[in-house]
Amino acid sequence: MIYERYLEVRNAIDEAARAAGRNPEEITLVAVSKTKPLEDMEALAEKGVKDFGENYPQELKKKAEAIKYPVNLHAIGHLQTNKVRMILPYTCLIHSVDSLHLAETIEKEAARIDKVQEILIEVNAAEEETKFGLSLSDTEALVREIAALPHVRIKGLMTIAPFVENGEDNRPVFRNMHELLLDIKSKNIDNVDMEILSMGMTHDFRTAVEEGATIVRVGTAIFGERIYHQ
Ligand SMILES: *Cc1c(COP(=O)(O)O)cnc(C)c1O
After folding, report:
1. In the prediction, which pLDDT does 43 show?
2. How many CB atoms lie within 10 A of CB 73?
3. Is the distance from CB of 141 to CB of 92 less than 8 angstroms?
4. Ligand 1, closest atom to CA 160?
5. pTM
6. Which of 102, 145, 209, 225 places its Cα 20 to 30 Å from the Cα of 113?
């Protein structure tokens, strides 16, 4: 069941990519397994799925230590500085860096374990008040500051677009993100790659692919609705 849904999402990505004249292989599907049991991840991992997204540091660490298959764990949720040490040994890419303070904490912890941590800069592209992330206009300045940190490597940008029923409504947000990525890329900043554009979730991943996403983060369409126990 879970793997069938994963394949449906993957096919929809491939179709959207081809329709937009893009190579589907440029796009990584990150299966967002937050709140879901390890067995649900393993149902995909045993078929060869590698990329999973987690929001909560304890959960990421626990699953990393328990899973029987080789996987890439993406840290996609808002990250507090006091949780950096917990996830650093386990995460391939932190999607949600939105301050110099957080980047400096990652630098310190990455140096301690002799790792260069790949990160994305989170942009609040729709400028929603409730969201984390930088404004479009502040992003380049932060990229330049973080670029100086030797154990942190910026690979691109990430955004969480507004929650909409119709993904089409987020097209302008995705378009602005792609323009910003290309703009910063054109500045050729040392120690910065602008290769990854992480955007698109269950409701809007097709539109995100059409507008240049190279990573989409999909949870509900693969694993079903999440139930939060508080
Ligand atoms: C939960 C989450 C997702 C997945 O959302 P769905 O709507 O379930 O696909 C993607 N990105 C981030 C940052 C998330 O927190």
Report:
1. 98
2. 23
3. no
4. 13
5. 0.97
6. 145
Q: What are phi and psi of 132, to 5 degrees?
A: -80, 170
Query: SS3 letters for the chain?
Result: CHHHHHHHHHHHHHHHHHHCCCCHHHCEEEEECCCCCHHHHHHHHCCCCCEEEECCHHHHHHHHHHCCCCCEEEECCCCCHHHHHHHCCCEEEEEEECCHHHHHHHHHHHHHCCCCEEEEEEECCCCCCCCCCECHHHHHHHHHHHCCCCCEEEEEEECCCCCCCCHHHHHHHHHHHHHHHHHHHCCCCCCEEEEEEECCCCCCHHHHHHCCCCEEEECHHHHCCCCCCC
CA nearest 167: which of 144, 198, 199, 136?
A: 199
Q: Is a pLDDT exceeding 90 seen at residue 228?
A: no
19 CB-near residues (< 8 Å, 6+ apart)? 210
Ligand 1 atom closest to the Cα of residue 218 is 9
pLDDT digits (tens, 9 = 90+) for 105-134: 999 999 999 999 999 999 999 988 878 999
**Using a 6 Å cutoff on CB, does residue 160 contact ligand 1?**
yes
